[in-house]
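can u do me a favor
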């Protein structure tokens, strides 16, 4: 089920940095996102053009890119690196809820009250603010956002329940793929292990202080293969461990002041997005010092 998972291939950025702080007393996670070297790519196709004549150049965005940038400026969207291709989009979440009223879940999938509760929580408890644009030392266009997740423990619990339901529903297909020897993701031993672990809600997401753990039950041999094949390009600051019959991605540390992820995303910077901002959103272009101050204040706020 595509909970806030959306492809975004029109506007790209050279690097991204994510810094977060888990405020246990307030039960919220605050994070800052920096997109460094923002530009519009020159690719052509249905995902990057409104029509065949909608062409971007090195100096000018095409219409689809302008609309994508405008949708971010209007609020409710945040991006999490590129190899994960993960995006939070409040409008997409609302669309999923509306569709669910009239269309049943596809065969082999589940969509019920738990999924609706999670989507509603993500819409209610996630707050995104666009801090503004700035230019880095190379003169490249950069942007910054803040994101706050309130009622974090409740949202994480809802997410773990939903992921458990989705994995249970997917197990028959995974077993069928294994039997037919096609695109097998997990061994029989891992699937048997998962089936046992999924009898109750499994803690796919855990947060302890500023330590975030993402985990999936499996046997060690599968964990090693997946780590080498699929997880070799994780953002800096993420590390892989195998413990308690689960492959874990760990970020930050329990006693750390903050957690941080950084990743090189795309090459080929162009000035087209910078030119568009200078022509149409000059007031949103801030001094880097001001952006830094606002981001630090947001992370460390004490009220």
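np, heres the sequence
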């Amino acid at each position: 089920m595509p909970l806030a998972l959306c492809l975004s291939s029109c506007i790209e950025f050279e690097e991204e940095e994510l810094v977060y702080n888990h405020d246990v007393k307030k039960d919220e996670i605050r994070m800052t996102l920096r997109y460094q070297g923002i530009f519009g790519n020159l690719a052509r196709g249905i995902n990057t053009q409104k029509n065949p004549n909608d062409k971007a150049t090195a100096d000018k965005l095409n219409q689809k890119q302008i609309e994508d940038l405008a949708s971010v400026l209007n609020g409710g969207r945040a991006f999490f690196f590129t190899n994960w291709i993960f995006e939070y989009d409040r409008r997409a979440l609302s669309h999923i809820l509306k569709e669910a009223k009239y269309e049943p879940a596809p065969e082999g999938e589940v969509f019920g009250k738990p999924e609706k509760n999670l989507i509603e929580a993500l819409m209610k408890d996630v707050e995104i603010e666009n801090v503004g644009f700035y230019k880095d030392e190379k003169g490249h266009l950069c942007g910054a956002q803040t994101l706050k997740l309130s009622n974090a423990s409740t949202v994480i619990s809802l997410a773990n329940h939903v992921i458990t339901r989705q994995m249970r529903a997917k197990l028959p297909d995974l077993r069928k793929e294994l039997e037919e020897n096609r695109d097998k993701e997990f061994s029989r031993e891992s699937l048997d292990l998962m089936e046992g672990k999924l009898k109750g809600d499994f803690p796919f997401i855990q947060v302890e202080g500023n330590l975030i753990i993402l985990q999936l039950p499996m046997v060690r041999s599968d964990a090693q293969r997946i780590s080498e094949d699929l997880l070799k390009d994780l953002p800096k600051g993420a590390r892989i461990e195998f413990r308690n019959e689960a492959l874990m991605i760990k970020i930050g540390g329990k006693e750390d002041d903050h957690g941080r992820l950084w990743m090189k995303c795309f090459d080929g910077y162009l000035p087209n997005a910078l030119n568009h901002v200078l022509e149409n959103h000059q007031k949103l272009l801030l001094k880097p010092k001001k952006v830094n101050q606002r981001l630090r204040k947001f992370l460390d706020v004490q009220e």
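Confidence is low (pLDDT under 50) at residues 1-8. hope that helps!!
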